[in-house]
Amino acid sequence: MNTEQVILTDTPDAADVAAVREHLSQFNLDATGIDDQRALALLVKDPATGKVLGGLTGRTSRGVLFVEMLFLPDSLRGSGLGSKLLLMAEQEAVRRGCHHGVLYTNTFQAPGFYKKKGWRELGEIPSNPPGTSRLFFSKQLNA
């Protein structure tokens, strides 16, 4: 009898994470016949140094945009750049055939920003520190 080895780690090897992703991608392909998962990144760089100051990262897959991170430093907030990044991500997702978007944020981040951009709150899960929550949003994307 084979007994699989289970390893708990907070520092997984990138190749091991890629192997799990590859297995799941193959399972999804077998189930759906669709193999369209693609990364999406909009990077904001300092023109003098080339250093990344912030940006938006996510992915698209089977008709859905997944926004994973959106960050801008204080000096760039309120400039319209965050709105531009989100709109650019939504437009690229539509070009890739997406009809919906999903994301989550925290109550101490910028949930009002997403609401103003047409994202609808789906649910809330209490998190730490006490009194804060993770908020889940979706948006129907228009062609």
Automatic annotation (TrEMBL):
Residue ranges of coiled coil: none
InterPro entries xrefs: Acyl_CoA_acyltransferase, GNAT_dom
Membrane-spanning intervals of the chain: none
Species in which this protein is naturally found: Dyella humi
Official protein name in the record: GNAT family N-acetyltransferase
Ranges where the N-acetyltransferase domain occurs: 1-142
Pfam family of the protein (one): Acetyltransf_1
Recorded superkingdom: Bacteria
CDD domains, A to Z: NAT_SF
